[in-house]
Amino acid sequence: MTRWRLSGEPRSTRYRLVKIGLIFVVAFLIGLTFLTVPLTPRVDENFFFADDDPQLAQDRKIAKIFPKQEQIIINVRGQIRSRAYLSRIERLTDRLSKIPEVITAKSLTHGPKDFDDALTSEFWGRVLIPEDRKSSNIFILLGANSGKQAIPKIEAAVQASESADFQPVIAGVPYMIELIQRRLLYDIKVFSLCAVGIFGLIILAIFRSIWIVVGCLAASAAATSLTLLGGHAIGLEIGILTANLVALVFVLTIPHTIYFTYNWKRHAVDSSTGQSSVKNAFWDTLPGSFWSMGTTLLGFLSLLLVEAKPLRQLGASGSIGTICALVAAYGVYPVFLLGINSRTSAVGAVATKKNRAFVLIRYSGLITGGFVIVSLLLGMGVLRLNKDPSLLSYFPDQLRQGLELVDQTGGSSLLEIVLRDSRGRKLATNEAYERLWRLQNALERDPEVGTVISLPMLMAEGKDFPFSFLFSWKRILDIMARPKYERVAQNFISHDHLYGRFVLRMREVGRETGRAEVIERIERTVKRHGFTPVLIGNTYALQAQLSAVLGSSLIQGLGELVLLLGIIGFIVSRSAWVGLTMSFGMAMVPVALLGLIGILGAPLDVISAPAANLTLGLGIDDTMIHMAQRWRELVKSGRKPGESWDLARAQLWRPIVVSMLVICAGFSIFLLSQFPPTQRFGLWVVIGTLLVLPAALFFLPTVASIWSRMKSKASL
């Protein structure tokens, strides 16, 4: 028996050396992660979908016909006729033109012959001067995929030109993407540090042991490193959602250690050695943790079925993180409990041993009824969900104000239309030119359309060539395709003159109609003027497809997840009624959460949408599964089913409340983000987690107890 004693100096020293060795192993994993895994989030213009997704098929086809280029708009307010204003515009345009990635930069001083020409020109007037004529635009074309290199240089040129009365505002999808990437990189740094600090303080406050704190943090850090290394090994990138992976894996790992620690403290009261209490806690907690891991894994796996690339990335990374969290929690953390004085641990376990009842147990029926009623009432808000939010909702107020200004002066989200004559005739004719202009005017009258840059505008500019009346449209367009004119015609008409291109800057501010409906209306307009819209693409169209995918996938994924979690509940409890009760209780949580989002009118974007799935996966598994597992063990020990629910709740309410508070604390870190969708994601998970508490502590035990008593009476 001497070899099991913890108080002996040789054994304590050995445990301490093992712990230090584990700390070095975890440190090695962290170092390996920093050396091998690219931690900068990868965000490009197609970050909503993968390159091989069918949603990008239209864009790929457009790129085969017309050069793929990126647009940047710089809007500058001021007295646009004044000599001082035009002089500053000229200097800024000169600086921008010298940037290697810039194909061309057009402004009032670079493109039109003079200011009056810009006002009267069909082309320059639309591109450079908004309708209110209180500002002008600098229109920049970048080479394909060059935005990342060009944006910092463009910002530097703009900042060098700024003064109190000259404040250029940059907009355009490449610029928005760069801003998103910067905020995600900031989140990675802040969340990683905050996760360590916040979780360390919480664990210290609960268990008051440095070794327990070190063990929890070591297990979480090991799980995070293994997740990042595993994801990198199979080719997963850090994306728009997985930038939060560090905090997420910490949240996945810590609840396992909390349940383990509470069971260890409970066993420490009766165990003669600390080693046996750790061993007993290991086998006592592992089944519940395993099934909890399974439910969380299902939550992440359900995201793999979604067509949106960021959600699939989160599903894959989260699945790896879920498995690594369990492995680290049971492979690393238990070692740090060895050598801790069992008598010290027993002091904190007195309350656990006595199984003190939850203080609100007397109100179980009332709270259960209130939970059901409130959930159903909130659920009515699901009909008001905004699944097609403005692209500008991705940015904080300070930045959004500038982007909204540009949006109001001509739109901010691009929609490309490739069309051809309905009867297959070439577009380089006078008759086609007249119809194209009527289409141009009709599109400009659409309230959701801002500036339209198109083939007829280019043709109108060609009419101003000297002696242009002597040339055919084919000849004029061929001239405009020469290097002397920057091959501008190639951007708007195909080589065979059968296909034309319209680029629409769509308005995002104040949009009340869904993007898909707007696109359908535009298609009808195109057809009404004798043309066939062959291809429709770019950001606006992708956002419309994303909205449709998000809505259908969200409902389908949540339904399948609730069903699968109910089946797991049946397997764990060996009771169909318990599984059914768990399914109903679980279903009310996302219904209430999504309904609340709809009532508040908050945007349900691709980043905040997974909150409902994660609430189920993270919240339910750490509560209902452990509760059902404990209930089954108590029934097997000979206790009555109804009594077992009360006892299971008395034993587990503390770790349930603590683990839920830890999850809330973990996701509250996301509120520190500079990226509004991430802030909303964290807020929704916190609210959803709080909704889990009445479902687990009151709804499940109360309703399941009623079923048990009804079954007992029926059997008499």
Can you characterise this structure?
The protein has 716 residues and is of the alpha+beta class. The protein has four domains: 1-65 and 209-354, Multidrug efflux transporter AcrB transmembrane fold; 68-178, Alpha-Beta Plaits; 357-384 and 548-716, Multidrug efflux transporter AcrB transmembrane domain (Multidrug efflux transporter AcrB transmembrane fold, Up-down Bundle), CATH 1.20.1640; 394-537, no CATH class. Helix content is 63%, strand content 8%. It contains 24 helices and eight strands. The strands form two sheets. Strands 2-3-1-4 form a four-stranded antiparallel sheet, sandwiched between helices. Helix 7 (173-207) packs across helix 23 (641-668) and helix 10 packs across helix 20. The protein is elongated.
Question: How would the blueprint of this fold be written?
Answer:
Elements: H1 9-36, H2 57-65, E1 69-77, H3 83-97, E2 102-106, H4 115-120, H5 122-128, E3 135-143, H6 147-161, E4 169-171, H7 173-207, H8 210-233, H9 245-268, H10 274-301, H11 309-331, H12 342-347, H13 350-354, H14 364-379, H15 397-408, E5 413-421, H16 430-445, E6 449-454, H17 455-462, H18 473-480, E7 499-506, H19 515-528, E8 531-537, H20 539-573, H21 576-600, H22 611-636, H23 641-668, H24 676-715
Antiparallel strand pairs: 1-3, 1-4, 2-3, 5-7, 5-8, 6-7
Helix pairs in contact: 1-8, 3-6, 7-8, 7-9, 7-23, 8-9, 8-11, 9-10, 9-11, 9-23, 10-11, 10-20, 10-22, 14-21, 14-24, 16-17, 20-21, 20-22, 21-22, 21-24, 22-23, 22-24, 23-24
